[in-house]
Protein: MYO5B protein
Amino acid sequence: PFLRLLEAQLQEERREYEEELEVLKNEVDAVKEEMEKQHQAFLQTLQLSPEAQVESGLHQEITRLTKENLDLKELLEKLEKNEKKLKKQLKVYMKKVQDIEAPEAVVSAERRWRERNMQVAVQRKEKDFQGMLEYYKEDEPLLIRNLIT
Structure:
């Protein structure tokens, strides 16, 4: 079983390696073709007069810049679509947060109202009773429990 597992892993890695090698070979072939085209264009340009060489160079640069511009426009459109999608998601999430926070805000407002009322009551009690409380150490848990309730 262990050897079969290792053999299967080795075959999988070999398959991945061969696929990656094939992709790289295709890329190298594409680069070679592009280089050959550029070489041919360069040789043709050398045979032209200096004015024609400048014109040909400008034409090639305009073609390259046009292609680059189209690629950038495509990327911009893709990013704008993504931005719109993200804005829609943000609106949905903001709505969900508001729906969740609205009841909490009501509860929070009620809680603050109760706390204010309790503070007023506590302040009045403190005004009625001034001084310190004396107690025995062993009565402390009972005192705390009575204070809390």
Notes: The CA atoms of residues 123 and 129 lie 10 Å apart.
